[in-house]
């Protein structure tokens, strides 16, 4: 089997939410696979960028060391006007070229359902679901016209189950899962592949509260056949598979990367 099957040489990729956590490793994985040999797009949430400028620079340096280019197109996933400008800005910067969109930006708010405010609910749904549709719609129009493209969404185990104290997150990720399938149904005929990665429990700041809770941490690890939390780099291979021509006949799939949690 040729390694070219997984090559992203010459591809232009856009990824949201990639200064830290799994998004950071995803951005580096795209560059390692060849995306950005000419140009590489680095989309980021404005609020994260402000809080993590050092991470921003670090990711730039790592991508540059791979001989790739890394460019920032600011995106605030909770601001509709920012979302509307994002894909046109990307296309404007790169002469109308966009091959891969990774919708990774996401937030979680942990509260009992009875304590959720409308503001908290709406902010999670907006960031985790509404922005995914809006960015996919804008990118999809371009990819349909060019008759090729890859859209990869970040789903979750919560696309399958409700979790505890994360009603808005579970609802948003359930929506991401079915949205992925709905867009795949419409766009597969145009050689636009829409799929998702559903990470299990990954050791990032998003799971800090769980890993620091002795009871929850014990219960979670007891349920994972691999007996460990995933690492951000565990998402690299699945992402490159879905972003490359190796997955050209994969449509509407939620690729679970969970150490065996769902099988248990």
TrEMBL record:
Keyword terms: NADP, Oxidoreductase
Highest taxon of the lineage: Eukaryota
Gene Ontology MF: a single term: oxidoreductase activity, acting on the CH-OH group of donors, NAD or NADP as acceptor
SUPFAM superfamilies with a match to the protein in the record: NAD(P)-binding Rossmann-fold domains (SSF51735)
Presence of keyword Oxidoreductase: yes
PANTHER family: 2-DEHYDRO-3-DEOXY-D-GLUCONATE 5-DEHYDROGENASE, SHORT-CHAIN DEHYDROGENASES/REDUCTASES FAMILY MEMBER
Pfam families named in the record: adh_short_C2
InterPro entries reported in the protein's UniProt record: NAD(P)-bd_dom_sf, Sc_DH/Rdtase_CS, SDR_fam
Protein name (record): 2-deoxy-D-gluconate 3-dehydrogenase
The family this protein is said to belong to: Belongs to the short-chain dehydrogenases/reductases (SDR) family.
